[in-house]
Amino acid sequence: MSQPELEHWSNYWRSGVQTSLPQDFKENYDGEILSFWNHQVEQLEDGAKIVDVCTGNGAIAIIMAKMAIKLNKKIQITAVDISKINTNALSKRYDRKIMSMINFKSHCRIEQLHEQIEHEQDLIVSQYGLEYSDLNLSAQSMAKVMKSGGRLVFLSHSSKSDVFQYMKVEFRIYEWLEDIGIVGIFNKLVAKKISPDYFKKKVFKITSEYQPPVEFQSQPLFGSWLNLIRQFQQMSDSIIYQQTVALADFLKQHRYAKSRANDMLNVAEKVKDDGWLKPLVLNGLTLKQNGHILYKEKHMAGDWFEFQKVN
Global pTM? Predict the structure, then answer.
């Protein structure tokens, strides 16, 4: 992905969210996911050096720092992401002791990790990140910064994850809204290519002609658009003109969210292939163990893997 293509993720992390699944984890990951990462800290020696790649807004780095403090372990965490990490929001949310354990690095591509951090790392971790990278390059880069005997532990999306089933329906909503012309007519209104009166007549015509699939009704995305349409149909022309700036931002967020959903669905296809992890083996890493995590003992959260550098 080129830098412009990543703006949809930087925009997401700028909002201050802690996780990539904010509807399920409003503060930070908990339950079985939290236990998994706490267990990784329990295995570390005092003074261990860790890299959290594709950190987002530092969810896993924060979990590990908290556990290290609880166990009275001194560890060094470097948390990197290709997007802009919202360290201001993190500093307000977490105390200095936690933040002092983590060195955040924004705009750091995992494929170029070896150029931006010191080598001889004991552990590299990631959650819902590696699968978005070019693993042919990122595997090579990670292997360069790991010490002999160092480990790579990560949790990846599974093609069977509940989030992908939800995302498939959501992406159909994005496409349906564009296909019937609703998104286009709102864009024309923002660009002032049509009058508010024509806009309202066109929206009425579209919504009269097209009925959404039943499964859309329970989706928050569809509900937000339904509310938007109703509000604008009831506005006076002068109020509509006043709302165009806010509407432009709504449409921008809509585009970004669609791009993120598309990324996730592409990843779902990628991890279906059992050979997607082969580049790790080709770069001197040996699979030690793997499994999956069921959140609340029933929701597929993803597949986890532990690799070790053998030389």
Answer: 0.87
